[in-house]
Design brief:
The complex is a heterodimer of chains A (about 130) and B (about 900). With about 130 residues, chain A is mainly alpha-helical. Chain A has one domain (about 25-120): Orthogonal Bundle (Arc Repressor Mutant, subunit A), CATH 1.10.10. Chain A has helices spanning about 50-60, 70-85, 90-100, 100-110, 110-120, and strands at about 25-30, 35-40. A two-stranded antiparallel ribbon of chain A has the order 1-2. Chain A is globular and about 35 Å long. Chain B is of the alpha+beta class. Among the domains of chain B are: about 1-190, DNA polymerase, domain 1 (Orthogonal Bundle); about 565-600 and about 740-885, 2-Layer Sandwich (Aldehyde Oxidoreductase, domain 4), CATH 3.30.365; about 615-725, 2-Layer Sandwich (Aldehyde Oxidoreductase, domain 4). Chain B is built from 25 helices and 30 strands. In chain B, helix 2 packs across helix 5, helix 3 packs across helix 5 and helix 14 (about 480-485) runs parallel beside helix 15. Classes of the chains: A mainly alpha (about 130), B alpha+beta (about 900). At the A-B interface, helix 2 of A face strand 14, helix 11, strand 21, helix 14 and strand 22 of B.
Chain lengths: ~130, ~900
């Protein structure tokens, strides 16, 4: 039985399974001195691995040098909503929850609400199948 | 023409086209949606059965013009959930209602039979209901229900005598499913039953090519056809136009290339479905055919056409190395080398891939509501938001007419959501049966070279695998399917040395995804077949061989993971009397023309995979009851029973005081799919965690109601979680974390082979199973029976061949004609990490079936079929080869 992987060269496109770790979309990496598991879109795998230091480090990575009060209001609302509801809010629920216009919310974080705020708040994506 | 009809006791004047179909009249005009449509009005499924002038008829082939003066009874005319008919009671109490899509038709067929024959035999019931198809039950409990209904109707028994006390014990008792009576009475609304006034009907243009470039799409003629509101192509979709389940490779509508026969290319919206379908034929697509990659072997060949520019044809490679297989093979006393192949198959839920979408609200606040068959509403919502570019959306799960893995991914909803946004109108998409087959994922074909070795005593020493998985044109969750197969590669056994390689490969075949068991059924078929071949080589009875090689607690699986409990030897003991009886009967009854054989198939199926997580919330209500909030889809397995009985037991509440909120993204937790047999273990577990928190709060504040907690300043709602270890198999050794628990089964097939025709008849299947404590015995056994019926289809009949498999006849759907006797032997070894000792069982049930049947065929006639399904032509050919050798 063969057990070696097929050889690839630099011109070969990546595996069709996508960039996830071992095909299961989990990518551990070190942030703020801690190993944290992300999915292949950069979202937390587990909501509990988040803390404020990690949020600050991720913000810096995304080009946000400092998180001000408005940022923290958004992040704390998102985490509270997730804790209570087990899901991320729709944008209109976020806007209503912190009384901030959607347009401002979209520009507050690099990447907007989903790729920016939700990612920095440590909210996981809905899961697929294990 | 004008005619008079009496429908459910009400006489009506009907002005109609004489060619109008009774099913359409009932559903569209009178909103009597108990009668269902599945088979494209070909009279193949019986889901539309009603009674006309005392006889059961398939309303989808009955023309209204012939019915002047007719007396028609639909399921709604029998009873209501508040006041059910005795037959409806019987179907609920017998456990015959799973997804429920076929049940109104079954009940009407049963009524027509019982009206003329109050005490029918099993054969008479099977004959009367031979046109009524069911994918869930294996027909056993349907027959039981008709017999029970006969007893009720004959006055021998009252339903009340059989209903368990809702205040009594909750675990191990078959309380009626919360959804059973609405399904039996035809009031449970499946997606196509939902009234959506003014909705456009959509139909899709599908590729006739397996691989081609799209040069041009000309919609001019179609757009000008009667009733057509417009035609939508990929250019009209504002979002990513991609279904991003795990890999963003599958378009909602193809842009410049099609990759399998059936790929959707354009969508027509019209005032009626007939107009939409007519216009579909007028859409002109200019294709430039490309070389077709029709197998994984072709896909990995040097210079093979790449299916996707962004990704290599080889999607994923996962070796598994344990011990020293080369040394073990060299030292082995006995070795078998085999090569198996399994088919592409459709999961064949009866309900079409129906969905609908509409807006609530106006302007910037307009929310798009998508209704469909999803078993993972939050994941699918996120996919639809991204694909369509519309964020303010919610997903609602209607009642779902079976799914068996199909709905792990988005099928029709991308089209429906995009169409609602594009046309700014409510839309409904009821795909034809063939379209449903095009749109839905298939069971992955596996090509497996397997080498298995043992020592002189029959102790397994090594296995080697080379597995090629045909992913089809898109990935969906092919990675998970292949890795699950690798995770469970050593099945029930202690095999110390392993050298395996598994590869997942894009082709231009239909795309695969979850399919009941999702990977392990394919590898178990190969391994369990090879086990029998090796046992014969050594000269040891197959049951003894399996006993001798069982894994034991403290030993490791092929992943290197140590197992805590392993009640497989006990299952061997439990099935042994039946096995001995079956062998004796087969030997006594076998003739040259009708050869009888007996075969075994085992399985160990993992529950609670690495990385899995669940969240379910509970809230204490003001009457002291609780409401459970969690996206726990129930396409028929009985998750509503599981949640409500576990919760009522934990809270010591009567069942009516447990309320479930599981069907909308608006008020549920993102809890993962109804897949991997995970909901009992994961969602049941997280719900019990939440209940634990709630009970602690109630004790602390001496509260019995939600109001008590509020007055004490305490929350009324608590979030429970259950999390598996996060980790993955090592990419080079395949060693790593595995499932927290296993459900075990050992199945016994008894078959009769017609040696002239090659036709195989399953006489009886017996399943010995251990899935921990049983919450609901009828639901539990119902899963076993339905899974074995599906497994026999996989073994003997079913396959999906695009272009050839178009309906339920060409699919060779299981029916009363193919039904067989079944027996289930239940052992209940409590699982300490389970939900009140329970784990899931929905998939294990078919994992062991196909190998048991194939081993029985070999036992009967001495030939081995290496390529599923074992159709009569293959069996006959193998018999011919055997005869030529002698």
């Amino acid at each position: 039985m063969e057990s070696s992987q097929p050889s690839t060269d630099s011109t070969t496109p990546p595996a069709g399974g996508g960039p996830g770790e071992f095909g299961l979309s989990r990518r551990p990496r070190e942030i703020a001195g801690r190993m944290i598991t992300f999915d292949n879109e950069g979202f937390f795998w587990t909501v509990d691995e988040w803390d404020e230091d990690v949020a600050v480090a991720l913000a810096a990575e995304s080009g946000l040098a400092e998180l001000d009060d408005a940022h923290w209001r958004v992040l704390r609302f998102l985490r509270q909503f997730y804790r209570e509801n087990g899901r991320a809010p729709l944008n209109r629920q976020l806007a209503a929850g912190i009384d901030m216009p959607l347009l401002k919310l979209e520009t507050l974080f690099p990447g907007g609400i989903k790729q920016g705020a939700r990612r920095l708040a440590g909210l996981p994506n809905p899961k697929t199948c294990m | 023409m004008k005619l008079r009809l009496t429908i459910n006791g009400v006489t009506r004047q009907v002005v109609t086209d004489p060619d109008a179909i009774l099913l359409d009249l009932l559903r569209d005009t009178y909103r009597l949606t108990g009668a269902k449509q599945s088979c494209d009005r070909k009279g193949q499924c019986g889901a539309c059965t009603v009674i006309v002038n005392g006889k059961a008829v398939r309303s989808c082939t009955t023309k209204v013009g012939r019915l002047d003066g007719a007396d028609i009874i639909t399921v709604e005319g029998l009873g209501t959930p508040a006041n059910p008919h005795l037959i409806q009671h019987a179907f609920v109490l017998a456990g015959a209602v799973q997804c429920g899509f076929c049940i109104p038709g079954m009940i009407m067929g049963a009524k027509a039979l019982l009206d003329s024959n109050p005490d029918p035999s099993t054969d008479e019931i099977r004959h009367a209901l031979r046109h009524n198809l069911c994918r869930c039950t294996g027909y056993v409990k349907i027959v039981d229900a008709v017999k029970l209904a006969g007893r009720f109707l004959r006055g021998e028994l009252e339903p009340a005598a059989l209903y368990p006390d809702p205040d009594g014990p909750k675990i191990g008792v078959s309380h009626p499913r919360p959804s059973a009576l609405p399904k039996a009475c035809g009031t449970a609304e499946f997606t196509a039953d939902i009234h959506l006034p003014g909705a456009l009907e959509v139909a899709a243009v599908h590729s006739p090519h397996a691989h081609a470039l799209i040069r041009n799409i000309d919609t001019t003629a179609a757009a000008a056809m009667p009733g057509v509101a417009g035609v939508m192509t990929a250019a009209d979709i504002k979002g990513s136009n991609r279904h991003n389940y795990m890999v963003s490779d599958r378009p909602v509508l193809c842009e410049d290339r099609v990759r399998y026969v059936g790929d959707p290319v354009a969508v027509v919206a019209a005032d009626t479905r007939a107009h939409a379908l007519a216009a579909v034929a007028a859409v002109k697509v200019d294709y430039e055919p490309l070389p077709v990659v029709s197998s994984p072997v072709e896909a990995i060949a040097e210079g093979a056409p790449q299916i996707h520019a962004e990704w290599n044809n080889v999607c994923l490679t996962q070796p598994q190395i344990k011990g020293d297989a080369a040394k073990a093979f060299a030292e082995a006393a006995h070795v078998v080398e085999t090569h198996f192949h399994t088919q592409c198959n459709h999961q064949a839920s009866l309900e079409p891939e129906t969905s609908l979408a509409y807006f609530e609200g106006e302007g910037d606040d307009a929310q798009l509501v998508v209704v469909g068959r999803s078993i993972n509403i939050h994941k699918h919502l996120a996919m639809l938001q991204e694909a369509t570019g519309w964020e303010n959306m919610r997903y609602e799960e209607a009642f779902v007419g079976g799914q068996f893995g199909i709905k792990i991914d988005v099928t029709s909803e991308g089209i429906t959501a995009a169409a609602a946004i594009h046309f700014r109108r409510p839309v409904r998409y009821i795909p034809t049966l063939q379209e449903s087959m095009f749109l839905s994922p298939k069971r992955h074909p596996f090509d497996m070279k397997l080498k298995l070795a043992c020592d002189a005593s029959g102790k397994l020493t090594a296995m080697g695998w080379d597995i090629l998985v045909d992913n089809g044109a898109y990935n969906s969750m092919g990675n998970v399917v292949m890795l699950r197969a690798v995770q469970m590669l050593s099945a029930s056994y202690d095999i110390p040395n392993v050298d395996a390689l598994a590869r997942l490969v894009y082709t231009n075949n239909p795309w695969g995804a979850a399919a009941r068991g999702a990977g392990p059924p394919q590898t178990h078929y190969a391994l369990e077949s090879a086990i029998d071949l090796l046992a014969r080589k050594v000269g040891i009875d197959p049951l003894e061989f399996r006993k001798r090689n069982t894994l034991h607690p403290g030993q490791t699986k092929s992943t290197g993971a140590v197992v805590d409990e392993w009640p497989f030897p006990e299952l061997c003991e439990a099935i042994e009397p039946e096995y001995k009886r079956a062998v004796a009967e087969a030997r006594a009854q076998s003739t040259p023309a009708k050869a009888r054989g007996v075969g075994l198939g085992a399985g160990a199926f993992g529950i609670g995979g690495p990385g899995d997580q669940s969240m379910v919330a509970v809230e204490l209500d003001d009457d002291g009851g609780i409401t459970v909030y969690g996206a726990v889809a129930d396409p028929g397995e009985g998750n509503d029973s599981m949640l409500s009985q576990l919760a009522a037991d934990a809270m010591d509440l009567p069942l009516p005081k447990v309320r479930l909120q599981t069907r909308t993204t608006e008020n549920t937790t993102a809890n993962g799919p109804a897949a991997a047999s995970r909901h009992t273990y994961m969602s049941g577990g997280s719900m019990l965690d939440a209940i634990g928190q709630l009970k602690a709060a109630m004790a602390e504040h001496k509260a019995t109601t939600g109001d008590d907690l509020r007055k004490a300043g305490a929350p009324t709602r608590y979030m429970g979680t259950k999390k598996m270890v996060v980790g993955a198999l090592d990419p080079t050794t395949g060693q790593g974390p595995s499932f927290e628990s296993q459900v075990h089964a050992l199945q016994l097939a008894e078959v009769e082979v017609d040696t002239e025709t090659g036709d195989v008849r399953v006489v009886r299947m017996t399943c010995a199973v251990d899935a921990g404590r049983v919450i609901h015995p009828l639901n539990f056994v119902g899963q076993i029976e339905g899974g074995m019926d599906m497994g026999v289809g996989l073994a003997l009949r079913e396959r999906y061949e695009y272009g050839k498999t178009k309906d339920w006849v060409t699919f060779k759907y299981p029916s009363m004609r193919t039904a067989f006797d079944m027996q289930t032997i239940v052992r209940e070894t409590p699982r300490p990490k389970g939900s009140n000792g329970s784990i899931g069982v929905g998939e294990m049930t078919l994992v062991a079936t196909a190998p048991a049947v194939l081993n029985a065929i070999d036992d009967a006639i001495g030939v081995r079929i290496y390529d599923l399904p074992a159709t009569p032509d293959k069996v006959k050919a193998a018999l011919g080869e055997l005869a030529a050798k002698h």
